[in-house]
Design a protein that fits this description.
The protein has 112 residues and is α+β, with helices and mostly antiparallel strands. It has two helices and nine strands, in the order βαββββαββββ. The strands form two sheets. Strands 4-5-2-3-9-8 form a six-stranded mixed β-sheet. β2 and β3 form a beta hairpin.
Length: 112
Protein backbone atom coordinates (compact mmCIF):
# COMPACT_ATOMS: atom_id res chain seq x y z
CA UNK A 1 0.00 0.00 0.00
CA UNK A 2 1.40 3.39 -0.98
CA UNK A 3 1.10 6.27 1.46
CA UNK A 4 2.27 9.85 1.68
CA UNK A 5 5.24 11.19 3.61
CA UNK A 6 6.35 14.59 4.91
CA UNK A 7 8.69 15.30 2.04
CA UNK A 8 8.82 18.69 0.35
CA UNK A 9 10.31 19.41 -3.06
CA UNK A 10 11.06 23.03 -3.92
CA UNK A 11 10.09 24.48 -7.29
CA UNK A 12 13.78 24.67 -8.24
CA UNK A 13 14.30 20.99 -7.46
CA UNK A 14 11.11 19.92 -9.25
CA UNK A 15 12.14 21.85 -12.38
CA UNK A 16 15.63 20.35 -12.36
CA UNK A 17 14.34 16.80 -11.86
CA UNK A 18 11.97 17.26 -14.80
CA UNK A 19 14.73 18.80 -16.94
CA UNK A 20 17.06 15.84 -16.28
CA UNK A 21 14.28 13.32 -16.94
CA UNK A 22 13.41 15.03 -20.24
CA UNK A 23 17.09 15.17 -21.21
CA UNK A 24 17.37 11.41 -20.57
CA UNK A 25 14.14 10.63 -22.43
CA UNK A 26 12.31 9.36 -19.34
CA UNK A 27 8.58 9.74 -20.02
CA UNK A 28 7.09 9.00 -16.58
CA UNK A 29 9.89 9.88 -14.17
CA UNK A 30 10.04 8.28 -10.74
CA UNK A 31 12.86 9.67 -8.63
CA UNK A 32 13.83 7.31 -5.82
CA UNK A 33 15.23 9.03 -2.74
CA UNK A 34 16.62 6.77 -0.04
CA UNK A 35 18.79 6.76 3.03
CA UNK A 36 21.75 4.38 2.83
CA UNK A 37 24.51 3.51 5.30
CA UNK A 38 27.68 5.42 4.60
CA UNK A 39 29.63 8.60 5.00
CA UNK A 40 31.50 9.66 8.08
CA UNK A 41 28.33 10.30 10.15
CA UNK A 42 26.52 7.00 9.50
CA UNK A 43 23.91 7.70 6.79
CA UNK A 44 23.72 9.48 3.48
CA UNK A 45 21.08 10.11 0.84
CA UNK A 46 21.06 8.43 -2.56
CA UNK A 47 18.89 9.50 -5.50
CA UNK A 48 18.27 8.12 -8.95
CA UNK A 49 15.51 7.41 -11.42
CA UNK A 50 13.62 4.14 -10.99
CA UNK A 51 11.22 2.25 -13.23
CA UNK A 52 8.63 1.26 -10.65
CA UNK A 53 7.06 2.06 -7.32
CA UNK A 54 7.23 -0.68 -4.69
CA UNK A 55 4.27 -1.69 -2.53
CA UNK A 56 5.58 -0.09 0.70
CA UNK A 57 6.94 3.10 -0.90
CA UNK A 58 5.79 6.51 0.23
CA UNK A 59 5.01 8.56 -2.87
CA UNK A 60 5.02 12.29 -3.51
CA UNK A 61 3.49 13.38 -6.82
CA UNK A 62 4.68 16.72 -8.17
CA UNK A 63 2.59 19.02 -10.35
CA UNK A 64 4.97 18.53 -13.30
CA UNK A 65 4.26 14.78 -13.47
CA UNK A 66 7.34 13.60 -11.57
CA UNK A 67 6.82 11.10 -8.75
CA UNK A 68 9.17 10.82 -5.79
CA UNK A 69 9.38 7.32 -4.26
CA UNK A 70 10.76 6.85 -0.75
CA UNK A 71 11.17 3.42 0.82
CA UNK A 72 9.70 2.70 4.24
CA UNK A 73 13.04 2.83 6.11
CA UNK A 74 14.02 6.15 4.57
CA UNK A 75 10.58 7.65 5.25
CA UNK A 76 11.04 6.98 8.97
CA UNK A 77 13.87 9.52 9.04
CA UNK A 78 11.23 12.25 9.07
CA UNK A 79 10.45 15.58 7.43
CA UNK A 80 12.92 16.53 4.73
CA UNK A 81 13.16 19.17 2.00
CA UNK A 82 14.72 18.48 -1.40
CA UNK A 83 16.09 21.63 -3.00
CA UNK A 84 18.27 22.53 -5.97
CA UNK A 85 20.81 25.30 -5.48
CA UNK A 86 23.02 27.10 -7.95
CA UNK A 87 26.30 28.64 -6.84
CA UNK A 88 29.64 29.78 -8.28
CA UNK A 89 30.86 26.27 -9.07
CA UNK A 90 27.61 24.92 -10.49
CA UNK A 91 24.41 23.47 -9.16
CA UNK A 92 23.34 20.53 -7.13
CA UNK A 93 20.60 18.97 -5.07
CA UNK A 94 20.57 19.48 -1.31
CA UNK A 95 18.48 17.74 1.31
CA UNK A 96 17.58 19.52 4.52
CA UNK A 97 16.60 17.25 7.38
CA UNK A 98 15.76 18.98 10.68
CA UNK A 99 15.74 15.54 12.37
CA UNK A 100 19.43 14.93 11.65
CA UNK A 101 21.28 15.04 14.96
CA UNK A 102 24.73 15.48 13.46
CA UNK A 103 26.27 15.93 10.05
CA UNK A 104 29.79 15.69 8.79
CA UNK A 105 31.96 18.62 7.74
CA UNK A 106 31.40 17.97 4.04
CA UNK A 107 27.60 17.97 4.55
CA UNK A 108 27.07 14.70 2.68
CA UNK A 109 26.23 12.41 5.59
CA UNK A 110 24.27 12.61 8.84
CA UNK A 111 23.17 10.72 11.92
CA UNK A 112 19.81 10.59 13.70
Amino acid sequence: MQSTVNFTVTEAAASEIKRIADEQGIENPILRVRVVPGGCSGFQYAMGFDESIEENDRVVELENGVKIAIDEFSARIGLIVLDYVQDFIGGGFTIKNPNAANSCGCGNSFSC
